Amino acid sequence: MKSIEQLATELKRDMGGWEEGIFDWACELAQSAAKVLLERIDEELMKEREEGLEEEGLRGHWVTTRFGDVNIRRRLYRHSDGNYCFLLDEAMGLRKRSRVSPKVEELATFLASYVPSFEKCERLLRALLPDGISHTTIHRLVGRVVDPYVEQEEREIAAVFEDGVIPESQGKVVSHLMAEADGVSIALQREEERRTEVKVGIAYEGWEKMGKERYRLKEKTTYAGIMDGERFWEGFSLILAKKYDLSQVGQIIVGSDGAAWAREGADFLGGMFQLDRFHLLRALYRGLAPDDSLVGQVYRACTCGDLDRADGLLSQAQHKSKGEHVKRIAELRGYLLSNRTGLRDYRLALEGEELRGLGAIEGNVDKLVATRMKKRGMSWTKRGANRMARLINLRERGQLHLWVNRRDKRDGSQSVPVSPKVRSENHKSSHGEYRAWLEAGLPALYGPHANRPWAQTLSAIARATGAITGIRPTKS
Predict the structure, then answer these.
(1) Where are the domains of the chain?
(2) Which of 115, 114, 108, 100 has the alpha carbon at shortest distance from 70?
(3) Are 138 and 108 in contact (CB under 8 A)?
(4) pLDDT tens-digit series, residues 163-211
């Protein structure tokens, strides 16, 4: 590895590449430091291991990190029951048979939830990271993060709706809660059906003014997946029940385009159904075209909850029409009848509240799901599409890092995600455990390689770190 003086000489001859040169040098330094530090930690873990854990020798392993690939040698152990483990891998949060660090895994899955294909995600990561990872690895990582989340949700739903277990909740209480649901059709491949529907739901407490005539949703919660209507509302209501005390929420308003599965959400949540105004107007214009002179009258009758007047106006128009127009008006009357409980503007029942009309679901369906899963000729298997929808769930709820760092029993680590507070406390404990060996010294700084450039640079960094933290390396 170059010394700082050598690097400066090279950069002086070609200042055009100073950023790349310093970055590459810093990554090499970080790789060397990581190897020294991780192998030193492995030694300490060996001394502190539990009884009955037999050392089987050293094994090499490449780890892809944010600063490049690092080759470490760590000890393999055998439990009394015959199972094997690497204590260092567990301490680092590495999955079994994986060479990707948790931070790279989090970055890869985060990008995969936005970027239109895994191949493009690979190209982005190769531009961002010194070594990058393949699109097949990214695809596999998505499954490793999402599948345990889906499995746990299924267990929680069974516990709540079959066994009557009440989920833990933040117990938040609000005067009203808006929930909207819609579906987006996506193309399938290697399936019997050609298309399927991804169901999307959002819930929010109201609106926050961002400027003149500009608002944003307040405390938005999202949910998406490929499932039937009943399963969708079970999952969505479970997410909401963890956040709100639904029994104490003043009023729940459920908006949709009138699809039967979405409309059922009002009964499921014990709320008030509201037919989306955009879809109501679109149905009126389609049903009454080309003569749309009645649209305004019928619309006002609907929003006032006067279905009899609205249907009377449509009945008169139907009698005066001929051919295809008669059929379209008949279908419109059926649409209004099936959505009669959601025609009246919900704000008429909540006087005094500063409320706006619903309809935010259309834009959210596009931003959350359609852009990632529908456009540019994309097609999916059902399993892959459901995984991506659930990955978007985790990203939008800020829980992606928890499930990236989750390790089930097969990985030999924690079985459920921990809260940020618990993680913070655990981090403090770990810091205390490793303080002793940090104070004890870094052998590489005093051993046979002490005069090498990278060891001298590591020594300088250690001294600088000690000046800041009060932890100084000393000779063992």
Answers:
(1) 1-92, 99-166+399-412, 168-396, 418-476
(2) 100
(3) yes
(4) 989 899 999 999 999 999 999 999 999 999 999 999 999 999 999 988 8
